[in-house]
Write a structure and sequence with these properties.
This protein is an all-alpha fold. The protein has helices at residues 2-12, 20-29, 33-58.
Amino acid sequence: MALRELTVSILLYAYHIETIGVVVYNLQDAGYREIAAALASIVMAILILGNMLIRKLTGGVAGF
């Protein structure tokens, strides 16, 4: 799954515009593993909370 997300991120990458997946990969590649892990954790928390909010607002019809 992570490899697929990175592939899509690379396709969406443009000059001076980086997706979060590319930023996390670049941070990890540069040796900033703790910062990359923290950013990935923040993104996951936002996604989980957003999903929970959508499920609550739609009565469980939308969301995973």
